[in-house]
Each structure stands twice: as structure tokens, then as C-alpha cells.
Amino acid sequence: MADFPTTIEAIETTWLTEKLRAAGVLGSEVTVIGFTFEPVAEGVAFTSRLYRLHLHVDGPSDVATLVMKVPMKGAEGFAAPMYRSEVTFYRDFSGWMPIRAPRLYFGDITTDASEFVLLLEDVVGHEPADQIEGFSLDQIRSAVSLLADFHAANWGAHDRLESYRSAFPRMRDSFIVSLLPSLVPIAWKFYLSVARVQPADGTRKLIERFAEVLDPVLDELSRPLTLIHGDTRGDNWFFDDRHEARVLDFQLVTQAGGMVDVAYLVSQSLTVETRRGADRELVEHYVSCLDVKGVEGYDFQSAWRQYRLATHLMIFMPLVAIGAWSRTNERGRHLCLELMERALTAIEDLDVGALLPT
Questions:
Q1: Please, what CATH class does the domain formed by 127-354 belong to?
Q2: Do 130 and 43 contact (CB within 8 A), yes or no?
């Protein structure tokens, strides 16, 4: 049993006061006397519940609102490794990495990782991106720049990465990837039954070969090794009025090549019309940002090949999301279909089939 609240109804003001005082955002004489809350990210969060808490305090406070994150009922067993990754990231990495992650006020997790709680800074002044509407080019460039900063911070840091493999597994060892050979055919069959637009025959054949080509694709996309965000879909991004990006949700932090993050973001968070013609520019921008950060030996040709391969690999993310079809709302279902259509179109546009082993 957890010795911390894992539902919004279980939170007591005394507990909240204690944790916020310890975080330095409440003075020692200030007390939380009440709060109201509202759900956040309904229909786009598939493994956790998020709430925005509006605090009522009896004195001066540095925070008026915060975000609470707890497990989603029914997802605890499947998502336990994700919960462990996120709590570890916020505790040990977010404070020093140049990624503008929300500040951690409190985080704890049970030994078996089935229960957790995070109290996080509310990203006031930043508007959430709408993945269905799609990013603008200014927003996507800002997001790619932030990913380059994220990746550069651990690029080649093999000793550090090795010491955190239990929380941040290498991509090949991650529990989701281990499920793909059996999961993808089932999810693909279900997708075809609900698809708004049926894929072309050539694209169908590529996806049907997904498990067959998975090993060599994983090998190529695991180098150069760094820490990646792992879930760069648009609903995890926020922007201020200057298009400065912030990224949330660190449940799928993994060790892999950074282009996995970039390809997932670009291929599924831009509308088809916005992405077409911008792929090369964005890959060049990423490589240029890495160069500014002192990363050496990663040229455009290598990056471009990995971008195309990763676009094919990351088709599995909307397929995994489709597994939550019965648990999500109408917007969540629309999002799943939109991501699949964008991803499949990108695979066709980039002629990914020409790179895959025969």
C-alpha cells in the first residue's frame, strides 16, 4: 500500500501543506486550507489521471495552481514501468537538464511501481498544443530545438545511462517494444476495421512486415545512444506567445538514438500539408542544433536515413494508443485515427519501404 494519496479524493490539506512547505513554495506559517480541482488532458492521457489543483491558502504563496498526476484505474499493471521512469526522471534528471520541464514539488512511488503520485508545477503562461489541429512550423522548430538540447545533455554519457537502465531501458529492452511482434498485427487489424481512409496496398504490406524488419530497424535507431523523451506527440507540448516550447510527460523515457523522438514528433504532430516539404529542413535544423551543443560525428545523411526509418518504427505509438479505444472518449478516438493517417502518409511520402531489408 502507498503511504501517499493516489486519487484526487484522498488528498488532505495537511498532507498538501507539508509537501509544498518542503518544496519551498509555501512558507512555514502558511497552510493550505482548501482546494478545488479540474481534470486535465481527458481523452489524450492513456495511462494516468491528471488534475489541476487551485489552492486556497491563508497567507502568501508562490503557487496558485499545481498539477497532480496519479495512475489511471485499470492501467496500473501495464503501465508500472512507465510510472517508474517518470518518477525517476523528475527526481534525478529534470532539475539539471536544459529542457524546461515542470518543477517537481513532490514525487513518490511504491516498490512495485503500481502506485505513484507527482505534484508538479503548472505551466502557467503556456498554451497546450492541439495535436489534432497540428503544430505551426515555428512551433515545430522550437520543439526540435528543445529535443536537440534534451538529447545533447546525455549524448555519449554511457556510464550515466548504464547506471539508469532499470528506469530507462534501452529501446530494444523496453517492455513496449517486447510486445510489438504480437501487438502490432492485432492493433493493425482493429485499425483497419475503424479506419476512415483505407491504406494503399503497398503501405499495408509494409505494416504487415513490421515484426519481420523490427530487429534491424531497432539496431540502426539505437545509435548514437542518448536519453530520449519517448513520447513526443503533440499533446505533450506547451508553447508561450513567442513559440518557446515546453515538454511534459516523461513516462516513456528510453535510451535510443535521438532521431526517434524527432521523427515521431514531426510525422504525427504536423498536418500532412504542413509537413510535406518541411522534413529535410527540420532534420537539418536538428543536426545544426546538436552541432551548436558540441555533438560531433552526426551528419545530415545519417540523420536523414534515421528519420525515415524512425517514421516507420513509430507507427507503433498510435497502434498502442488504439488499444485504449474502449477506455477513451470521442476526442481520443479521433486523435488515434488522425495520428495513424499522418504516420501512414509520411511513410509513403518518404519512400520508407526502399530502406527496409527485403
A1: alpha beta
A2: no
What is the fold of 8-121?
A: Phosphorylase Kinase; domain 1 (3.30.200)
Q: What is residue 349's DSSP assignment?
A: H
Rg (CA), the chain: 20
**N-term to C-term CA, the chain:** 51
Which part of the chain has CATH 3.30.200.20? 8-121
pLDDT one-digit tens code per residue, 108-154? 999 999 899 999 999 877 788 888 899 999 999 999 999 999 999 99
Whole-number Cα distances in Å, 315 to 139, 184, 264, 340:
22, 9, 8, 7
Q: How many residues does the chain have?
A: 358
Express each pLDDT in 80-106 by its tens digit: 899 999 999 999 999 899 888 899 999
Strand order in the sheet with 127-128: 127-128, 237-239, 245-247
Count of other CB atoms within 10 angstroms of residue 193 = 7
Strand locations in the chain (E): 32-40, 48-57, 65-71, 104-109, 116-121, 127-128, 226-228, 237-239, 245-247, 254-256
Q: How far apart are CA 295 and CA 286, in angstroms?
A: 11
Q: Which residues pair with 104 in a beta bridge?
A: 120
- How far does Cα 27 stand from its chain's mean position? 34
Q: How many CB atoms lie within 10 A of CB 7?
A: 14
What are the grid coordinates assigned to 116, written together?
A: 505513484
Residues of the chain with CATH 3.90.1200.10: 127-354
Grid coordinates representing 290 are 546538436
